[in-house]
Amino acid sequence: MKSSFWGDYLSRNYVVGVDLGGTKILTAVADRQGSVLSRVRVATGADLGQDHVINEIVTSVAVALREAGVSTEAVAAAGIGVPGPLDPQTGVVYLAPNLGWQNLSLGEILGSRLKLPVYVDNDANLAALGECVYGAGQSADNLVYITVSTGVGGGLILGGKIYHGFSGGAGEIGHITLAADGPRCGCGNLGCLEALASGTAIAKRAVALVAEGRGLGILSRAGGDRGGVSARVVAAAASNGDGEAILIMRDAGRYLGMAVAGILNLLNPSVVVLGGGVMQSGSILWEAMLETTRRCALSSALQEVSIVRAALGEEAGVMGALALALEKSQGV
């Protein structure tokens, strides 16, 4: 039986979603049909400290509600995505390196400040939920989301719900080991997908080429400045036909395809959604990923799966936060 508390909140018609990043906070207000009424984007200001960031979240929610013409008393719940490991049950953020947070009871703090039930989850998990509910994987009960940008992250929707794993760490797709003697990853391991196919990995490989006196086409694209060599520069050089850049992008695509194939064989999802800046870098990486996936995955796992580009862009996280708030406010 629902308590009077839940009875009160179930009668409210709006929800708030917050996507908290290292550089920006994106906040939105939606009705119970998922229609977004307002969006507010502000700088995170992580270098100004924990209290500043929390104040910015609270302020952004207030502004978003005002722009939507919605009072706090009409809001059922708020969902928030955070970049780091956390406990979705308690709302405690164990570690958010880009924010300088450790063991922060964010759900409790924001719940008290906003006077609302607040639900906290990992940002990649909520991006997966956003794509599942509103984006490229709509209506999929079993979906894997992979984001390839500065790093590689992921989220799992299994049986229509976010899958957190035993201790909340599921979905760390970027740290699947693909080359036992490969380059060192930021996590300390060798040969992680993130160390082989992320934007950072692509740039590092190109910089190493330039340091050896090669990669002249890539260096030219960077205006002759070695410090300007980035994944975007490498992708542009590859699209322009530079052979060394093409090889770098193809290799990154092949490693990504190996990871996707392993995920298909393990989880047999109906949809794999790939997002992030690197996935917008042209067809070379995408085609290499698909070719490797088809070669390495079992035919039974490939038979019905859809491998698609993300549809929501940078709004995937905030849309997932709204979806989480809607789900939780219905008492599910």
From TrEMBL:
GO MF terms held by the record: kinase activity
- Pfam families associated with the record: ROK
Kindly state which keywords UniProt assigns to this record, in alphabetical order.
Kinase, Transferase
* InterPro entries, alphabetized: ATPase_NBD, ROK, ROK_cs
Gene3D superfamilies linked to this entry: 3.30.420.40
Family assignment from sequence similarity = Belongs to the ROK (NagC/XylR) family.
Protein name in the entry: Glucokinase
- Source organism (scientific name): Desulfotruncus arcticus DSM 17038
